[in-house]
Amino acid sequence: MNSKKNAAEPGPSLEARPQNFHLQSETNHAMLIAEQIKAAGNASFKSGDYDRACALYGESLCLMETAKTHSNLAAALSKKGDFLEVYFNNCVTLHISSSHFHGPVNRQRATARDAPS
After folding, report:
1. Mind spelling out the 3-state secondary structure of the chain?
2. Which residues, in sequence order, are CB contacts of 111 under 8 Å at separation 6+?
3. Higher per-residue confidence, 6 vs 29
4. 22, 53, 70, 116: which has the fewest C-beta neighbours closer than 10 Å?
5. CA distances from 69 to 58, 73, 75, 102 (A)
6. Rounded Cα gap, residues 36 and 63, in angstroms
7. Is the Cβ–Cβ distance between 112 and 100 less than 8 Å?
């Protein structure tokens, strides 16, 4: 019995592709768009337009939730003085990635700013 495949045999049929093939493609596309929107948010943040940066980071998070984008949103919210939302976004940052550097520091700052005097 010959265990080698015959070169003339066809490869896997299209039906043999994973059923989530299109879903993977759509996910990759959403990730690319989310990264572009986050980059636009970064540009708005650098120019001092924190309202626009917050909106863009929020839009990016709707497509792809990442610790970095939550952290960026927290930074923009901090510039606006919305420390309760800063705290929330830093908690989410830590939930997604407990090793994210800015999460614990920013959460502590937001707590200190929000505390009654």
Report:
1. CCCCCCCCCCCCCHHHCCCCHHHHHHHHHHHHHHHHHHHHHHHHHHHCCHHHHHHHHHHHHHHCCCHHHHHHHHHHHHHHCCHHHHHHHHHHHHHHCCCCCHHHHHHHHHHHHHCCC
2. 87
3. 29
4. 116
5. 8, 6, 10, 12
6. 11
7. no
pLDDT band at residue 39 using 50, 70 and 90 as cut-offs: very high
pLDDT digit string, tens, across residues 49-94:
999 999 999 999 999 999 899 999 999 999 999 999 998 988 888 8
Q: How far is CA 49 from CA 70, 81, 84, 89, 105, in A?
A: 17, 14, 20, 19, 23
Structural domains in the chain, CATH included, are 24-114 (1.25.40.10)
